[in-house]
Amino acid sequence: MVGVVSQPDRERGRGRRRQPSPVSEVARAHGLPLFRPERVVECEATLRELAPDLGVVVAFGQFFPRRIRELPSLGYLINAHASLLPRHRGAAPIAWAILEGDPETGISVMRVEREMDAGPVMLERRTPIGPEETRGELEERLARLAAEATAEAVARIAAGEARFEPQDPARATEAPRITRRDAWLDFREPADALVRRVRAMAPSPVAFTTLDDEPLRIHRAAADPAAVDRPPGTVHRSRDGLAIATGRGWLVPLVLQRAGGRPLETAAFLRGRAIPDGARLGEGGPPDPEGTR
Predict the structure, then answer these.
(1) Terminal-residue alpha carbon distance, the chain
(2) H or E element: which one contains 236?
(3) Considering Cα of 161, then 166, then 172, then 174, what sign does the dihedral take?
């Protein structure tokens, strides 16, 4: 490896302290040449001096102009994208795979081109999505799969065995960046779709509704297909906990969090914050586009 290009230190965590990216930390730990420009084109001259054969992109978050994409001696960069392309092109493929109810996902190692995630694919690795798996849990599995797939791709390229197949644009779907609005629970939807939203928003930004005009976050939930006898968003209390009426079936929260509190299993939550039978959740509607609600 001739060098590593990563983002400059950014503010992270609750304290908003400036910290290096994980890639920068690994590069430093291994004594690799490290460059951290605000824009990748700022280190173009340095990259040309290093004369790499191939560029491997990992969640860099910037557009690569053609002169950077074609700078390596092989003439291209590769990237491991966390979906089975051309499905879920974009910034949040893992969340959207869960939201859409895909039974499986995977990693696609592709050549980087001008159009986002549209380059030809060299290899893919598939994996099922667990019925209760959250986005965070799936991200961890896919990260390991991406490392393995990238290593195999580099080995194929070094052996002269790389074969790239173009994507079918007619089958392409988009996976835009997740916003706070995506985390809102609309109880007119079926319970199984709402459970997928809860899973897709965990561990952040966390799916939420409102109770008495205050945020109520739901970290984990299950679906009960029993017939609903009250309007969507209405709470049914029982000795065991609570269920929320939806457009089809009941959403059963398993872990809840009030504003300023910590996540608690439902029984523990209800001991400190009563939610009466018949209470209506989400009556104020979704947050406004600026996220001030």
Answers:
(1) 48
(2) strand 235-238
(3) positive
Task: Please report the pLDDT score of residue 291 as a whole number.
Answer: 44
d(CA 150, CA 93): 18
| Helix ranges restricted to H, 78-190 | 93-99, 135-158
Task: Give me the amino acid identity at 143.
Answer: A
DSSP state of 176: P
- Is it the case that residue 293 has pLDDT exceeding 60? no
Q: How far apart are CA 177 and CA 183, in angstroms?
A: 12
Q: How far is CA 197 from CA 60, 121, 131, 219, 223, in A?
A: 26, 29, 13, 10, 12
Q: Does the structure show a pLDDT above 70 at 261?
A: yes
Give me the residues paired with residue 148 across strands: none
**Angle at Cα 257 formed by Cα 267 and Cα 203, nearest 5°?**
115
Q: Residue 59: which pLDDT band, with cuts at 50, 70 and 90? A: confident
Q: What number of H helices and E strands is found in the chain?
A: 7, 14
- The DSSP call for residue 170 is G
Is residue 268 within 8 Å of 274, Cβ to Cβ? no
pLDDT at 97 over 90: yes
Distances (CA, A) of 75 to 67, 68, 70: 10, 9, 4
The residues that bridge with 234 in the sheet, in sequence order, are 280
How many Cβ atoms from other residues are within 10 Å of residue 54's Cβ?
16
Give the pair of three-digit tokens for residue 159.
């052996």
Could you read off the pLDDT of 265-282 as tens digits, one per residue? Answer: 999 999 999 899 999 999
d(CA 92, CA 114): 18
Structure token digits, residue 254: 């398993």
User: Domains of the chain, with CATH numbers?
Assistant: 52-171 (3.40.50.170), 180-272 (3.10.25.10)
For residue 53, the SS3 value is coil
